[in-house]
Amino acid sequence: PTSGLCSEISGRFKELKDYSKALEWINIALETRKTVPDGSTFLWAGIIYYELGDMETAYKYFDLTYNELRYTPFSMEDKKYWQFYKQRKEELNPKKKNKK
């Protein structure tokens, strides 16, 4: 199956809040993605890990999403994922204040 199809199946399980099944399918999508690129797969993986409470792994996949596709895929999902990513990114990479 394609990564897109696997992501769709994963999404259906996410809607049912069956995150363990969603995780199984997103992992298949990630494996498939190695041969056929599909950046949105990273976002789905991040969402599933977020909902499972694994924030470290969620951030990793959200960062891959942002680096590949920027904000666009986040704009189509619940804003909490973008807010989490932005906040975590700022915590990990604080901007240096200019000294006068």
Plain-language structure description:
This protein is mainly alpha-helical and 100 residues long. The protein is 73% helix and 0% strand. The protein has one domain (3-92): Serine Threonine Protein Phosphatase 5, Tetratricopeptide repeat. The chain has helices at 3-15, 19-33, 40-51, 55-69, 72-75, 79-92.
Mean pLDDT: 84
Please count the helical segments: 6
Percent in strands: under 5%
Q: Do you know the CATH topology?
A: Serine Threonine Protein Phosphatase 5, Tetratricopeptide repeat
What is the N-to-C succession of helices and strands? Answer: HHHHHH
* 3D shape: globular
Task: Give unreliable regions as ranges.
Answer: none
What are the salient characteristics of this protein?
100 residues; mainly alpha; Serine Threonine Protein Phosphatase 5, Tetratricopeptide repeat; globular
Question: In summary, what is this structure?
Answer:
With 100 residues, the chain is mainly α. 73% of the residues lie in helices and 0% in strands.
Architecture blueprint of SSEs:
Layout: H1 3-15, H2 19-33, H3 40-51, H4 55-69, H5 72-75, H6 79-92
Helix pairs in contact: 1-2, 1-3, 2-3, 3-4
